């Protein structure tokens, strides 16, 4: 079926089943399926769709964008970027008098100040900002969870890994991906707990996951956020 509301059109499928309420589901491609009790009037389904219209449109766009993968950012066109799980517009400022290109976050915008407006300069300034923020956030998180462990990490590093969010080696050296600064605090905390648990259990056996679950009971939610959002954690 097709329905247009608030200037937007949505395609959806209705499946009538032995159930007592209407449920709206969305697959990984952004397609909408409505499951309704047998005999439910179409008008009632449409009513629920319109009630949840904004959320459906938002989720559908996210699913379709995820399938396209990360796109090259063009900072001259009001690009938006992730920081601590939320999306903020990037504002570029040309200032030839500054000593070094840098970034200032003001709770509404990610402001980038550069001597010369160039995509590479902008990206490098953003990367330095995320490195610095990630280091501070991770160190704070490690300190917060240290009481759960009898051993302490020997060092904490920030890396540019293409394959991992964090690692812990046999020397108790913890390494974290700078892109974690784009994730919500809860996600950062989970990755920190995950790697700190490796100080006790170097593999992913049952004892390891029991310890992770004890300290971070909702860790599967944080893993799910990373699985669904990692594609847009880019500069």
Verbal overview:
With 235 residues, the chain is α/β, with parallel strands linked by helices. The protein has helices at 42-51, 53-68, 119-145, 185-197, 206-215, 219-229; strands at residues 2-5, 8-17, 23-26, 32-37, 80-83, 86-94, 102-105, 110-114, 155-159, 166-168, 173-177. The strands form three sheets. The protein has a four-stranded mixed beta sheet with strand order 1-2-4-3. Helix 3 crosses helix 4 (185-197). The protein starts with a strand and ends in a 6-residue tail after the last helix.
Layout: helices, strands, pairs:
Elements: E1 2-5, E2 8-17, E3 23-26, E4 32-37, H1 42-51, H2 53-68, E5 80-83, E6 86-94, E7 102-105, E8 110-114, H3 119-145, E9 155-159, E10 166-168, E11 173-177, H4 185-197, H5 206-215, H6 219-229
Parallel strand pairs: 2-4, 6-8, 9-11
Antiparallel strand pairs: 1-2, 3-4, 5-6, 7-8, 10-11
